[in-house]
């Protein structure tokens, strides 16, 4: 019997990284076209998502997203323990009166409305297709070693409940009505005071816009400052959660390498000198933990002024710095008359994720247009938790909680590093990180020859551990294999047990 397995050369796939079309969409389109053209016969087996990603030099998430969409639309069929195959009956055949006809060449998407309708799920726009294709957020099954998860058991919920009750037992009339699109004024004032003292920001409370988290903040920025096709620099590797709003806005993502000083401005000038925006985490790059040097910060600001571009500064965990002096924000260096930096912050990692409150600090000339845009898109942020958070900050509870967590997290990082050195020597290599809620443990050469970090992640999940593969944060091939190990939410005894369990997983 002929072997029906297919290899990447037979698929003739080619991903164009200069295109504004997301890589997962390119992969989806090319596989679907090959199916409809009959180049991939019914029952043919596709390479695994891991194999395909490796051969195309893209992240496994890109291949998984494309496969998931093809599976959901009926072009592919999965068999547990066997692989992924071309469906014997395609969606077009089910919709056609002559479904028994032999498959012919795939219709071009520009031949008429019916062809365009068949190219995507019924009723979705092109932007909707992009959003629907993104993988769902990962549910965290265990604390060890989920990156980005803070310690929740020690949050002062008794204080929080008292502040909520104080406001809502007898709420003032103003809180029962529609609020300011920019947010509750006392909270905006409290945030501005905190940012000026703790982060060195140059800002007035009127520049603060309250959002329901970092991603909504980026969505607002993308909608108001970017046009479809605008190039946007982002860090590679970087936080994939910030890419969704960019793709939804039709922006062209330009991944740039990160070196010991931060994002490579020189590479950006070479690849997309006219980019409209750069998205960076200068204080503590995610996931590598690099701190952007002063020289690189000034270089980035100089480019933004020359190119008339914006910089979005993601300061996602600046509160948790364990060594050295706290670093001033990039925004504090932006002293030009017309600032180029939009500062993005969130309370999810400092307090608790379900709080869903964040903020933007915008240059003065953006206060009115972005406030109007905020009101148009979402009317106003919820007033339920804003007054309590304003009091939590103003009365010193926020600062006290941060100080307690700094001491706790520093101790937990120390225990994790000690256990890695004892239990995982020869397998993982990790160094102390001066900030953040996770460390990156790189694979030794011997371990990298035996398995990929994605395979290690799958094995760890089967053993009840939540780790993240470093390669999953790269656009394209990863420079090194490694695991992101979050420690903030994990008690010290649990860290020791989990490291031993991870050692058993990686040793097999």
From TrEMBL:
<feature type="domain" description="HTH gntR-type">
    <location>
        <begin position="21"/>
        <end position="89"/>
    </location>
</feature>
<dbReference type="InterPro" id="IPR004839">
    <property type="entry name" value="Aminotransferase_I/II_large"/>
</dbReference>
<dbReference type="GO" id="GO:0030170">
    <property type="term" value="F:pyridoxal phosphate binding"/>
</dbReference>
<keyword id="KW-0663">Pyridoxal phosphate</keyword>
<dbReference type="InterPro" id="IPR000524">
    <property type="entry name" value="Tscrpt_reg_HTH_GntR"/>
</dbReference>
<dbReference type="InterPro" id="IPR036388">
    <property type="entry name" value="WH-like_DNA-bd_sf"/>
</dbReference>
<keyword id="KW-0238">DNA-binding</keyword>
<comment type="similarity">
    <text>In the C-terminal section; belongs to the class-I pyridoxal-phosphate-dependent aminotransferase family.</text>
</comment>
<dbReference type="InterPro" id="IPR015424">
    <property type="entry name" value="PyrdxlP-dep_Trfase"/>
</dbReference>
<feature type="region of interest" description="Disordered">
    <location>
        <begin position="97"/>
        <end position="124"/>
    </location>
</feature>
<dbReference type="InterPro" id="IPR036390">
    <property type="entry name" value="WH_DNA-bd_sf"/>
</dbReference>
<dbReference type="InterPro" id="IPR015421">
    <property type="entry name" value="PyrdxlP-dep_Trfase_major"/>
</dbReference>
<dbReference type="InterPro" id="IPR051446">
    <property type="entry name" value="HTH_trans_reg/aminotransferase"/>
</dbReference>
<keyword id="KW-0804">Transcription</keyword>
<keyword id="KW-0032">Aminotransferase</keyword>
<keyword id="KW-0808">Transferase</keyword>
<dbReference type="Pfam" id="PF00392">
    <property type="entry name" value="GntR"/>
</dbReference>
<protein>
    <submittedName>
        <fullName>PLP-dependent aminotransferase family protein</fullName>
    </submittedName>
</protein>
<dbReference type="GO" id="GO:0003700">
    <property type="term" value="F:DNA-binding transcription factor activity"/>
</dbReference>
<dbReference type="GO" id="GO:0008483">
    <property type="term" value="F:transaminase activity"/>
</dbReference>
<keyword id="KW-0805">Transcription regulation</keyword>
<dbReference type="Pfam" id="PF00155">
    <property type="entry name" value="Aminotran_1_2"/>
</dbReference>
<dbReference type="GO" id="GO:0003677">
    <property type="term" value="F:DNA binding"/>
</dbReference>
